[in-house]
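Cross-check.
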Amino acid sequence: MEKKNWVRLDNASNIFLAARTDVDTKVFRFTAHMSEKVDPASLQKALIKVYEGYPLFQNVMRRGIFWYYLEHTEKIPYVQPETMPPCTAIYHYDRKELLFRVIYNENRIHIEVFHALTDGTGAMWFFEDLITEYTRLRHPEAFGENSERTPRQKQDLEDSFNRYFRKKKKKRENVPTREPFEEAYKEADNIEKSLQPYEEQTQYSNVHRVKGTITPDHRPRIIEMTTQVKDVLALSKKHKVSLTLYLTAIFMISVYESIEEKKEEDTVTVSIPVNLRQFYPSFSVRNFFSTTLMAYTFKKDQPYNIEDICQEIDKQLKKEIKPEAIEKRLKRFIGFEFHPAVRVVFRPIKDLVLKWVSLYTNRKITVAMSNLGKLSLPEMVEPYVDNINFYTAVVRPQFCVNSYKDKLNILFTSPFIETDIQKRFIRYLSSEGLDIQLDVNKVTREEFQ
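Predicted model, tokenized:
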């Protein structure tokens, strides 16, 4: 079978393209804090070696008449010293550029990725392989007899929605097919019969929206917080919720307490991505996630406590990650993409519609968070990597969480200069007795002087 040199984007990727702005570039970054200064030559060799094994990354973005699509390219990526602000735009419609970049600065190695290419899991697989190969080149003695690379189990171009949302199980072809999406659309008329009863998510009024002063050159305000993961886990267990929900509850409280003019009721919502690979086993490198919204309504004349907030959002999350809830949300996206009226609409018009959808959705979201969980490297690599963390460009305040070894990394990003919400969050955890290390970037002319 002749190799297919293009891949059509899924619905989520099209939204990233339509919704990107100068502030929210839809770019995210992973950083490895190495134990020694980075050697650019070794990093370049490692990049070429790993890049060869990831066909998805060997693509540029193209604009078709009706949709965007990825087109295979022979371009070779080159490592770059860090000279631009973090998460600077990667995709430009008038250039055929790779959709990721590898950057280095002193002892740090970064990878920045345009979200339309892949999600955090897919990018992390690439980054883990890159750091492993770099360490192999720099310290071959650490690998001993295990000097040969073990290929990662993955499927670069597979669209995992095809596997889980098709009417009949068929033998999967080597080239991704769009037929299951067609079938899913045809089944949409009977969606109520095929799914278990699902109660729609509550529609909230008075959703608070954070406002502030946009940074002068649109670089994100970044606050890196590091503490011991065992200490935060102990606090979350005390409240009988996961670490994700415990930190989310603190963020909600921090947002509410930062509101200067409180209403009778203020609803704080948090957008949380859900990695679908934990519910639908998949080795796809492509985007395979959904999002859900947690909410809590604060009342001006009623006291609140973290226990009540934790229990409320715990109930919400358990409902939203049920298979019937996930399937209903995803089939709606698929139905939109394959609606006959939508398919014949020209791409610029679709861009405007998706941009409007994004703006409308954003009105319901106060802040956001993302948790990639525990990140790890091969045993022989870890001594040469002190820490790994990640963050993303944002349209609203957000924090990203991951652990590495015994460290818990919480990275706040915001399009605003102000840091009141983040300060309240940090003070809360500090008051619980945590030992916290902080690093804050500079965003204003006064701070750089």
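Residues 6-143 form a domain with the Chloramphenicol Acetyltransferase fold (CATH 3.30.559.10). The chain is about 35% helix and 25% strand. Passed to J.P. for a second look.
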